[in-house]
Fold this protein.
Amino acid sequence: AASVEMTGLTTGTDYTFKVEAGDGAGNWTENGPEASLRTHAQADLAINFEKDRIYVNEQSSLTLKASHATNLYGFDVEIKYDPTLIEVTEIKLNDSFGVNGTTANLFKTNQEGVIRVIGTRLGDVEGITGEAELVDISYKALDKEGKASFTILKGSSVSDTNDALYVSNRDVLGELAIAIPVEGITIDQTAITLDTSTNKEGTLVASVYPDTATNKEVTWSSSDSNIVKVDQTGKLTAISAGTATITAVTNDRQFKAESVVTVISSVTGIELDKTNITLDAASQESTVINAKVL
């Protein structure tokens, strides 16, 4: 017995193979047996999220998509998700696959965190080759922060116009983050005075709320760094006399708070250019003393 492995075949294509036998003298049979086959439909299933990060209680959606499809006519897909983080609100065919009840049919279930969608095109139409958007799923994040996932389960399948079946042999994971949003920011001092001579440094403290917000990071800036500088911890350094506004902006949702900084330069003393002078009264001698304010 002999066997041969065929490679490089195109998906969704009919092939006929004929077997002939030959001898050492180069004589070949002409009526050997034939074998016909059709390669099955194939596609890479994936989940495309409208957003990869959403807030608690926010609505969003995803699309079940097939790429590198060949003559795709139907599908049977199971998607697992965590119902403690996500509430699925709607499941419908994507218009590019077909209109439910008219050019396509969709059967759907959603039980205990597993969605099953079975779809088929209707009528004498060609299957889809290339990119295919199959199903749109709308959902709502519940009031719990975390990492949510939608997983296309192993065993999900697609089929072509001849009912040839391709079954996925692995899970396909899609993840999104559920965050608690920032609602505002305050600064502990809305006005502050610094002195280039005696009180050159200061600190502003930003409070982001609510305390449970996922991303409480803040970016600081000065309207005029020639007057006062601020670093990313809120530390101030007076440079020269004047007024500038310090702004703190939340990285999440860009809420902002401001503080007006007034910089003064106080007098710390006075210096004379002459500290010991002798004058002749008889000649009415005079001199000039110059003073420097420090």
About this structure: The CA atoms of residues 18 and 240 lie 92 Å apart. The mean pLDDT is 89. The first strand starts at residue 14 and ends at 18.
